[in-house]
């Protein structure tokens, strides 16, 4: 593909999503959808006025904690969960009414609590006027029930997948995944936590009282117009990824939470479309990372700041035992301080604000709960690649490309050429904008075939000019190396998203325990949703 085809492709996508000159389209929903939604997210005038004057001040509102949903057991012991995607209005910013989408409510969704090893039956109703899907991000479930682009739920329809989560406890999430519309649907408010429970945290003595000393925090940024409507993709720089200038935690701008003096566990989820957070407590104190994307680490890792890319999760524990009566602020200081994240010059645009506050923690009396921070957590995972990696760069950077090349290779068992039946290789980017291996996502093309029950070694190489968070469905993987070195301690647990900085090569070990056939393949993609929607995604089978 050449440069002008790339730009054509991008333009087509942007038009589809509403970046029409002066357009007032319902973003990402198409004209038909725009009508059906009665102008939801419409009125995007392309104007730059924000509701900056509105809002009732920093930390004035209370952090909402999404209600837990435990599921209803039937006679067979199967747990049933019901979610309904629908629309409504929310107060993202104090005093401003914004049309939003949510599950079982106007915004975001309940926290699904799913016991490890228990059969579950989901009932997903599409109460939107447009097709959607619901993907269990991080869950090891068969391709058939993964909720990717092939599991489309028509307006009014119900999708009822059943599965059992056998993987370790972890902080997962769910979100829509319709091909080319994931960005706008998540931006409109769809998404929620999915916590797998196996009791290990309680046995270890970790804080685990939901909503008290164990808080889920979904971090998002949004942009609103003067009338309080969400604005999506109305400026050219947005095609690099949609950023906002208002910072929400669980759907509320800069809230506060009352927390007990003691050990506090925060389950951080970057549910933003594009933004990478560089998180810290404002006073610079140390905290401990106890879990990555998909499970506990071998031991708590002390840090003073933590990078969280889109779709990544981290669980941290903060020591508030001696902080009664004080307040702490969780903030992000992103971008410039971290090399390899963006192209130059920094910041890339006006919405790339360096430092901003997210959440205030007001420390009250001790709760009486006896949580602690154990020295050891869970045994370190040790998978090995079953097949030798003999990957190679398939599409070298030939120059002239705007984005450069992000290549991902996987050595085939036979060490054959990338295209050969015995070999596999993938590349991300090339001279193409937000493509993988020089190709854009096509619903009817399987890009890679992987073997069931084996551990694959995937090598991701980023030669583009920005960082990309790379995500793989159907597995939790381990980072084997970053540029040949062992990953930092807090990245040594199970993960399903890895931020690949520009110029970097990351090796992943990915065991595949479930089947995904050609009719319902798994996805691998960049989790910057505008890149994904633009086609920076590929499909693979596990058979
Ligand atoms: Cu979080 Cu393919 O998705
Ligand atoms: Cu996923
Ligand atoms: Cu990307």
UniProtKB/TrEMBL annotation:
Plastocyanin-like domain segment(s): 89-199, 437-542
Q: Which InterPro entries match?
A: Cu-oxidase-like_N, Cu-oxidase_C, Cu-oxidase_fam, Cu_oxidase_Cu_BS, Cupredoxin, TAT_signal
Q: Name the EC number(s).
A: 1.16.3.4
Q: Which reaction does it catalyse?
A: 4 Cu(+) + O2 + 4 H(+) = 4 Cu(2+) + 2 H2O
Q: Name one GO molecular function term.
A: copper ion binding
Q: Which CDD domains match?
A: CuRO_1_CueO_FtsP, CuRO_2_CueO_FtsP, CuRO_3_CueO_FtsP
User: What's its top-level EC category?
Assistant: oxidoreductase
Q: Which SUPFAM superfamilies match?
A: Cupredoxins
Q: Does the keyword Translocase apply?
A: no
Record keywords:
Metal-binding, Oxidoreductase
State whether keyword NADP applies: no
Q: PANTHER family attached here?
A: BILIRUBIN OXIDASE, CUPREDOXIN SUPERFAMILY PROTEIN
Q: Indicate the quaternary assembly.
A: Monomer.
**How is this protein named in the record?**
Multicopper oxidase CueO
Q: Which organism is this entry from?
A: Acidihalobacter ferrooxydans
């Amino acid at each position: 593909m050449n440069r002008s085809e790339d730009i054509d492709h991008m333009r087509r996508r942007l038009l589809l999503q509403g970046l029409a000159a002066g357009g007032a389209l319902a973003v990402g929903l198409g004209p038909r959808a725009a009508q059906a939604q009665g102008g939801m997210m419409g009125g995007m005038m392309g104007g730059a006025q924000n509701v900056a004057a509105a809002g009732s001040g920093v930390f004035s509102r209370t952090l909402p904690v999404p209600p837990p949903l435990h599921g209803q057991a039937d006679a067979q012991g199967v747990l049933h969960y019901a979610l309904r995607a629908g629309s409504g209005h929310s107060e993202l910013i104090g005093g401003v009414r914004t049309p939003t989408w949510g599950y079982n409510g106007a915004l975001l969704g309940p926290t699904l609590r799913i016991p490890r090893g228990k059969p579950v039956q989901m009932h997903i109703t599409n109460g939107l006027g447009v097709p959607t899907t619901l993907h269990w991000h991080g869950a090891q479930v068969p391709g058939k029930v993964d909720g990717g682009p092939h599991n489309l739920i028509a307006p009014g329809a119900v999708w009822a997948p059943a599965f059992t989560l056998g993987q370790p406890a972890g902080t997962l999430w769910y979100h829509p995944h319709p091909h080319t519309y994931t960005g706008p649907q998540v931006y409109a408010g769809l998404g929620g936590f999915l916590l797998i429970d196996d009791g290990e945290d309680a046995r270890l003595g970790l804080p685990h009282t939901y909503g008290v000393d164990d808080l889920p925090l979904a971090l998002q940024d949004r942009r609103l117009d003067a009338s309080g409507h969400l604005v999506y993709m109305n400026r050219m720089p947005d095609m690099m990824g949609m950023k906002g200038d208002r910072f929400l935690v669980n759907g509320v701008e800069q809230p506060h939470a009352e927390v007990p003096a003691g050990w506090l566990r925060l389950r951080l989820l970057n549910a933003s479309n594009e933004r990478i957070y560089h998180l810290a407590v404002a006073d610079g104190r140390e905290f401990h990372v106890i879990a990555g994307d998909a499970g506990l680490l071998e031991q708590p890792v002390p840090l003073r700041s933590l990078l969280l890319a889109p779709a990544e999760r981290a669980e941290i524990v903060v020591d508030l035992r001696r902080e009664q009566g004080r307040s702490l602020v969780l903030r992000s200081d992103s971008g410039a301080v971290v090399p390899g994240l963006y192209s130059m010059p920094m910041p890339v645009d006006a919405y790339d604000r360096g430092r901003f506050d997210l959440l205030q923690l007001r420390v009250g009396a001790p709760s009486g709960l006896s949580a602690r921070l154990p020295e050891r957590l869970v045994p370190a995972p040790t998978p090995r690649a079953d097949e030798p990696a003999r990957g190679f760069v398939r599409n070298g950077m030939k120059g002239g490309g705007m984005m450069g090349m992000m290549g991902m290779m996987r050595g085939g068992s036979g060490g054959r050429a990338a295209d050969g039946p015995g070999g596999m290789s993938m590349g991300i980017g090339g001279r193409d904008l937000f493509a993988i291996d020089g190709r854009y996502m096509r619903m009817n093309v399987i890009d890679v075939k992987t073997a069931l029950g084996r551990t694959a070694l995937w090598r991701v190489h980023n030669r583009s000019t920005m960082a990309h968070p790379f995500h793989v469905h159907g597995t939790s993987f381990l980072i084997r190396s970053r540029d040949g070195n062992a990953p930092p301690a807090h990245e040594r647990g199970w993960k399903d998203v890895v931020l690949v900085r520009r110029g970097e090569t990351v090796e992943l070990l990915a065991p595949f325990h479930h089947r995904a056939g050609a009719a319902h393949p798994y996805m691998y993609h960049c989790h910057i949703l505008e890149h994904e929607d633009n086609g920076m995604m590929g499909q693979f089978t596990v058979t």
